[in-house]
């Protein structure tokens, strides 16, 4: 499914020349080899005002980025899983303050890292249980093995959990494995990026009685008309031809290829071409720009399915729930800067809070962003990103496939150029 412009930029308050300059700016990323290609979608008042593509989805095959290109969105899966959990919350299936051990007994007695090495860690009992809201806000103490910033993430790698999940392990077993590892901090006392949303996905499974894949498909994807969103792509099918290749910044191969040029990285990229053992609610989805636009449009409409969805006019969430999710839920109402534990994340920290599945702009000045207070967003490890700005009635999503997302200042530059193109 492809996406196209629906309204002239000037009709919704954009300067068309400045949007063209935005495209030219990011085209230079392709021209000098930093990115293989990219796709950008900007909407205002629910209508697409700008949709552009540039470069190649597969450099080696010479295939261009097209409107229906498939992208690994990695951690942009997290907001979708968070919406799924809150749909169950709206049904009264759990409270945000409930201990997750009520459904996942392996988390009944968590231990917290205190001191020592990965070879001999010393732990203390958690002062309080991991609760549902801890998973939604990344304040659970769970972490990622690939961060390489603490003894605890070294223990994750030792247990087989690095940038990819342990082979042959499903979500239920992974949760049992993570529960046996120490937490990075006492629940509710810090903010640490990790497998919290994957555990939340397992909670969705147990509470709903469906697999995470089935729940997302029947309760979110089908109502929204997200027909191009999957956990994997059949290598023998037509969709494999639409899948963008995955790249990393590489060393200079020769005089014609500069250091940092996008270099194909199939060891991880090829994982998208086989069915996963674990449906990762924290980073497993592949989709088109059109499909993710349907999801962000639902958020901008505060839970309502847009007219093109199969359940047009129906609600996935109430407006009050969407507004509740996109407020700052960090303890004491502080910035991420006060609670973050370092390591990789899809956000800056000053002036930024965190809600139930989204980073939230509290104050644009310390955040050094022109976004409105109350804007919310997230991104993926391969440099994809989206945000929703309710005050400006704006949604933006950018797609490319470059690991890691910290390689280039794509996200702050997007904000600079897009807000500078608004004229009203």
UniProtKB/TrEMBL annotation:
Give the protein name, as stated in the record: Serine hydrolase domain-containing protein
Keywords carried by this UniProt record: Hydrolase
**Which parts of the chain are coiled coil?**
none
Task: Report the InterPro entries cross-referenced here.
Answer: Beta-lactam-related (IPR001466), Beta-lactam/transpept-like (IPR012338), Diverse_Enzym_Activities (IPR050789)
Q: What is its EC number?
A: 3.-.-.-
Beta-lactamase-related domain: residues covered: 22-416
- EC class name: hydrolase
Report the domain of life of the source organism. Bacteria
Tell me the GO molecular function terms: hydrolase activity
Q: Which organism is this protein's natural source?
A: Dactylosporangium cerinum
Pfam families on file: Beta-lactamase
